[in-house]
Write a structure and sequence with these properties.
The chain is mainly alpha-helical. About 60% of the residues lie in helices and about 10% in strands.
Length: about 150
Amino acid sequence: MNNEAGNDSLVGNTPTRFSACLLFSANALARATTAIGDAAFSRFGLSYSHAYLLSEVAAMPGATPSYLSQQLYLTPSTVTRLIEKLEQKGLVTRRPDGKNTLVYVTDAGQALVPAITDAWQQNWETFKGLLGNEEALKLTEQVFKAADAMGGKS
């Protein structure tokens, strides 16, 4: 729970016993960023994870679930669940190809991609507004490096 010095620390101006704990702090950050992302994508009836997957399939037609799992740092079962929901909404389709399944964006899904891209930009503007541009860039880089180092890729 403690940082290297073993000291409690401050969150804003509020002391908390857990703010020096990486697990606590990372989860607090995840909840905050998820709330912002969910708000941005709920107007499409999608979570941010669905939006990531749809965007990746649009950029890489014929992607396999395995490829999507690696690119999105999600477990294969999570990717399958996301694909199923997008398929139910008519935004992607799956096609068998030998032992593989290939995922393609539908016309309806492709039509949604520009609005999703705009929502990503609005999301980034929200983060920059809260943290400042430089801090948002540094935090994004540090969090990704840490996730990668800790085995975040499926």
